[in-house]
């Protein structure tokens, strides 16, 4: 008998970077979490906006890090984009591919013909991140879109994390064509669009899936749009101040320091919280004072109750040395 958080769900859909790994290193506890979910009978899926690897390559990468994954459990924005285009145009249609070889292969496997020139009269342009994407192919894409091809972007993440700092992501390359043509893509496939999550749920035949991510603007907003509960883990991009000031469409169901929360009581991660161990919050008009001491995530859950209710995060004040240190560490 268990009331732990994951027990309430029949599928856990993991974002990858910042949740399961950071660049090329597994996040401590991720492999154990996946194994324990499987042992408990909870299905596992992985959903990534990165369009430069195929599902099989992602599964091999995860397995190599000690995180068990089957190709069928992996949803990439490249695979989802190709599947979507195949639904919307006749089989065998020419599609101009801007991106990595993985995207080209997905387009081919979806029964379409990848091309690289506007002269081939593509009915669609699909654009994903690829390290070799340059002016020439971007120009062909711009010409094809101007001639009437439907423009699909696998995702619009502006940056890619790297050990040297953020690098231009697909959103930055999409912005090249957006600037040249003064228009947006017709379709964006990846998160925060709900397609990766809803496809994962339907493939696993899940009735009650949980999305797990590190970014409010992609993972959590995608889960909210898909009507799914979500867990924000603080091992990646979004931090406490992002959560405190999150608009309604980017608010997760749960927050936790890491994936170990999946195996503790759901009430220890649910937000907002009105009462937590160790911390107290006193409202006084448009200000609120945090006092006491305890787990930082508990304080965060308590504070979300005030800021999601309209209190500006800047109006939070400390009422104990521990609260002073905590708010300072969050830059408040
Ligand atoms: Mg991530």
UniProtKB/TrEMBL annotation:
Molecular function terms from GO: phosphatase activity
Classification via Pfam families: GNAT_like, Hydrolase_6, Hydrolase_like
GO CC field: cytoplasm
Keywords for the protein's UniProt record, in alphabetical order: Hydrolase
Domain named GCN5-related N-acetyltransferase-like: residues: 278-332
SUPFAM superfamilies linked: HAD-like
Protein name per UniProt: HAD superfamily hydrolase (TIGR01450 family)
Native source organism of the sequence: Actinoplanes octamycinicus
């Amino acid at each position: 008998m268990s009331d732990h958080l994951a027990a309430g769900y029949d599928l856990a859909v993991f974002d990858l970077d910042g949740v399961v790994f950071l660049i090329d290193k597994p996040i401590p506890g991720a492999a154990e979490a996946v194994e324990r979910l499987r042992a408990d009978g909870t299905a596992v899926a992985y959903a990534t906006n990165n369009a430069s690897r195929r599902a099989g390559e992602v599964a091999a990468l995860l397995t190599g890090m000690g995180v068990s994954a089957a190709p069928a459990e992996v949803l990439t924005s490249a695979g989802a984009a190709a599947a979507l285009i195949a639904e919307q145009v006749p089989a065998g249609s020419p599609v101009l591919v801007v991106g990595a070889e993985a995207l080209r292969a997905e387009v081919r496997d979806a029964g379409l013909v990848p091309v690289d020139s506007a002269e081939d009269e593509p009915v669609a342009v699909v654009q994903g991140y690829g390290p070799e994407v340059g002016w020439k192919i971007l120009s062909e894409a711009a010409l094809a879109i101007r001639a009437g091809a439907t423009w699909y972007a696998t995702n619009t993440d502006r940056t890619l994390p790297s050990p040297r700092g953020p690098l231009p992501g697909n959103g930055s390359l999409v912005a090249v064509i957006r600037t040249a043509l003064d228009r947006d893509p017709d379709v964006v496939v990846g998160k925060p669009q709900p397609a990766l999550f809803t496809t994962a749920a339907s493939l696993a035949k899940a009735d009650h899936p949980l999305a797990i991510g590190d970014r409010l603007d992609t993972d959590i907003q995608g889960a909210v749009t898909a009507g799914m509960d979500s867990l924000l883990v603080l091992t990646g991009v979004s931090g406490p101040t992002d959560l405190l000031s999150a608009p309604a469409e980017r608010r997760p169901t749960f927050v936790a320091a890491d994936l170990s929360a999946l195996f503790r009581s759901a009430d220890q991660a649910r937000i907002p919280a009105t009462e937590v161990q160790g911390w107290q919050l006193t409202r006084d008009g448009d200000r609120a004072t945090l006092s006491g001491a305890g787990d930082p995530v508990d304080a965060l859950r308590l504070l979300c109750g005030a800021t999601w209710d309209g209190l500006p995060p800047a109006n939070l004040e400390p009422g104990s040395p521990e609260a002073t240190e905590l708010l300072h560490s969050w830059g408040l």
